[in-house]
Amino acid sequence: MRPAxxxxxxxxxxxxxxxxxxxxxxxxxxxASCPELAPFVALNPYGDESINFFDPQAVKTLNKALLKHHxxxxxxxxxxxxxxxxxxxxxxxxxxxxxxxxxxxxxxxGQAIPTGPTIRCLDVxxxxxxxxxxxxTQEYGWSFVGSDIDPVALQAATKxxxxxxxxxxxxxxxHQREPTRIFQGILQKGEYVDFSLCNPPxxxxxxxxxxxxxxxxxxxxxxxVRNPTLxxxxxxxxxxxAGGEEAFVQKMIRESQRFATSxxxxxxxxxxxxxxxxxxxxxxxxxxxxxxTIPMGHGNKIxxxxxxxxxxxxxxxxxxxxxWAEALRPPL
Length: 332
Description:
- It is an enzyme of class 2 (transferase).
- This is Ribosomal RNA large subunit methyltransferase F.
- One of its GO terms (cellular component) is cytoplasm.
- GO terms for molecular function: 23S rRNA (adenine(1618)-N(6))-methyltransferase activity.
- It is a single chain.
- This protein is an alpha/beta fold.
- It has one domain (about 5-20, about 85-325): Rossmann fold, CATH 3.40.50.
- Helix content is about 35%, strand content about 15%.
- The chain is built from 10 helices and 10 strands.
- The chain has helices at about 25-35, 55-70, 85-105, 130-140, 150-165, 205-220, 235-240, 245-255, 275-285, 315-325, and strands at about 5, 40-45, 50, 120-125, 145-150, 170-175, 195-200, 265-270, 290-300, 300-310.
- The strands form 2 sheets. Strands 1-9-10-8-7-4-5-6 form an 8-stranded mixed sheet, with helices on both faces. Strands 2-3 form a two-stranded antiparallel ribbon.
- The longest helix has 17 residues, at about 85-105.
- The chain is globular, with a radius of gyration of 20 Å.
- The N and C termini lie far apart (about 45 Å).
């Protein structure tokens, strides 16, 4: 099997066409929605309003403003030192998965994006920030199961839901009690999800993560940084695991085979292109029926989403016809 690659040349290094963040941030509008952002906004050397993206508090407050202004998430916060995600990139992952769902709809049923709570999604590693479920429920009305091995992160994500009660009905949080497992213990018997997503830990060790942060910030500041302050933060399980991204994704693919009929589309971010060879080899070993790679970019950062399914084309069509009738119905 040779994986097909869905290319979007005109947008390869840009945000998704449906992104709310394709232009510059409109800081006065964001401040109107979230006044606490105001002290962090100042003119940069080019005369444009901006924030200090090296300041963790400024980055977190910008996220609060973006979530409130664009996604109607009124109350959002995370504990100190937990991952503060870049919202435009996270939203893009969801937009591309919406395209995957749309492209799975048989032609006679149209080419609409399935929306609404009957579309169920599994976020592997939901984190303290809960960002994928928050964005996915607000953008497409989907419902989510968010799993994590860290009970503190789940407590923080639960607080976000408690402060935004309208989200409670569509987001369920589950503790993965076995750190070596991904789907087992989370997906229940007889439970089905339409896609899974994951932002896997990238580094293989704390030392590697530290070295990567030093290198990144030194390049950005054009001088040696010895003790980096992570503007986006991150706990150990968020940033590294044994074997790093490559090993984690391999494990995910192998375990996904056991849940071949429980999930339509499995997916993961793959940050390093060199890891794709191993990813494709593992997908071939588990006999995935359909594999796609979707490039995505944000500024100078280039990543990609790898999606796979074990369902044959007839089985995919059966899934859509039997489960997505409500999701494909035009709004009144």
